[in-house]
Amino acid sequence: MRLLAGTGWGGRPGAADGAAPVSEPPAAGAPPDLAEAPTWARPVLLTLARLRAPRTVVAVAMSGGVDSSVAAALLVAAGVGVVGVTMRLWGEEELERGEGGCCSLDAVEDARRVCGRLGIAHYVLNLREHFHSTVVGDFLSQYRDGLTPNPCVRCNERVKFDELYRRVRLVGASHLATGHYCRLTEAGDGSLVMRRARDQRKDQSYTLYRTPDEVLRRCVFPLGELEKPQVRELARTWGLAVATKPDSQELCFVGGGDHRGVLARDLAGSYAPGPILDLEGREVGRHQGVPFYTVGQRHGLELKVTRPDAEPQYVVKVESRANTVRIGPWRALLTPSCSLSRLVVLSPRPAGEGANALAQLRAHGRPVPALWWQLPGGRARVEFREPQAGVSPGQSLVLYDGDQVVAGGEVEVESGAEAR
Predict the structure, then answer these.
(1) What is the Cα–Cα distance from 165 to 125, expressed in whole angstroms?
(2) Residue 155 designated active-site
(3) I need a surface site. Which of 9, 26, 184, 367 has the fewest CB within 10 A?
């Protein structure tokens, strides 16, 4: 693999701001067997074919996995102009520690092979510094401050659909496609509507809610109407080497899947042991540092046992300024409402009384009925129909009307409290 900083596609030196072509298309046109799509894939191909135009070039963000690979193959099969783009997010030191996940050297090589199979060029863009400052740095600072970050939401917001989108546009791409499971439709008034994917088990609209409307209008999600087994079937049908590659299940910058190791290394010197208190303020144990504790945590607390029949205890609050972790029984985790900051509204509605919605607190969490009110200053108030456990400041809460994304924001620390 060669990295040629400052070389863009089309042979225009300096155009790509760090783009690196790692393979050129072996031959003009798509491999013949791409036309052999199953009948159920034809509607998807017909929809994507609408993008065919002389000046249309779709840059596909390719992680080396089956989803982004099939997204690229679908666009090629539909006759759309396509190039593959892989983000380089890691230096040699991180890769040697086993970090990189979907953006490791092996992943880059897998993406390169797929592009060669599809007959399209493949480029690497060096976004390492931007990724570390906006995603990894945010992850560390939020844990340090007693919040619960969502790195995937932040990466989509600030890297894929911000910096990556900006760079591919600079070198002539008209659209950006990814392997996310999400659907975009247009309402009668011309506004854009984000919806859950048809395969709701794989739906990723929760992590995409912060994507600006002007960017979404140039985004393509080829997998939105497909089920995951269909995606793997297409990969096998078209001879993509990643057809059976397992899905990535961990944070890309957490080697081995345990984020506490990253926190211990990168936050060293910024945390200290302190007391674990019960709801009455009695010290019942010692914690190793507030970044290592999350609301709802039960194991690893090493509490003083007062009696064998005591109720199980959970972390109910993390107070970073006081360097204190508070615990209580399960019922103490239940929260009837919360406030949101950094509100994004995707579906404007008249102000006034609370609107019904389904509130989702985690990427694969169960949506629950709620009422919500939009407040001044980019804020909102959400009241759950039934109290919810583990509502943690810093995490994203996304509101849906059926399968349509309505709004979303980040859970605030309640006034007078400091909790995760």
Answers:
(1) 11
(2) yes
(3) 26
Nearest to 86 by CA among 132, 135, 119, 122: 122
Higher pLDDT, 338 or 5: 338
Domains and CATH numbers, the chain: 19-259 (3.40.50.620), 271-328 (2.30.30), 332-411 (2.40.30.10)
Catalytic entry in 115, 152, 155, 219: 155
Q: Supply the pLDDT for residue 247.
A: 86
CA 24/CA 103 separation, integer angstroms: 20
The predicted pLDDT at position 258 comes to 72
Judged against a pLDDT cut of 50, whether residue 5 lies above it is answered with no
Phi-psi bin for 342: left (phi > 0), alpha (psi -120 to 50), beta?
Answer: left
pLDDT for residue 349 = 65
- What is the DSSP secondary structure assignment for residue 159, as one 8-state letter? I
Q: Angle at which helices 137-144 and 259-266 pack, to 10 degrees?
A: 80
DSSP 352: S
Q: Classify the phi-psi angles of 369: left when phi > 0, otherwise alpha if psi is within -120 to 50, otherwise beta.
A: beta
CA distance 51 to 56: 7
DSSP letters spanning 18-60: SEEEEE--SSSS--GGGG---GGGHHHHHHHHTT--TT--EEE
Residues contacting residue 148 through CB under 8 Å, at least 6 positions apart: 142, 294, 295, 392, 393, 394, 395, 411, 420
The pairing of beta strand 379-389 with beta strand 368-375: antiparallel
Distant-in-sequence, close-in-space partners of 303: CB < 8 Å, separation ≥ 6: 276, 284, 285, 313, 327
- The pLDDT of residue 306 is above 70: no
- pLDDT of 19 strictly over 50: no
Residues near 206 by beta carbon (within 8 Å), at least 6 away in sequence: 153, 360, 362, 363, 365, 396, 398, 408
CA distance to 84, 183, 234, 316, per residue, from 414 (Å): 44, 34, 48, 13
- DSSP string of 380-418? EEEEEEEEEE---TTSEEEEEETTEEEEEEEEPPPTT--
Which pair of tokens denotes residue 240? 């993509």
Query: Which one of the listed residues 103, 115, 252, 338 is annotated catalytic?
Result: 252
Dihedral class, residue 352 (left if φ above 0, else alpha if ψ from -120 to 50, else beta): left
Closest CA to 73 of 11, 132, 128, 115: 115
Is 115 annotated as catalytic? no
Task: Judge residue 4's burial from the number of C-beta atoms within 10 Å of its C-beta, 0-12 exposed, 13-18 middle, 19 or more buried.
Answer: middle
CA gap 8, 331 in Å, rounded: 57
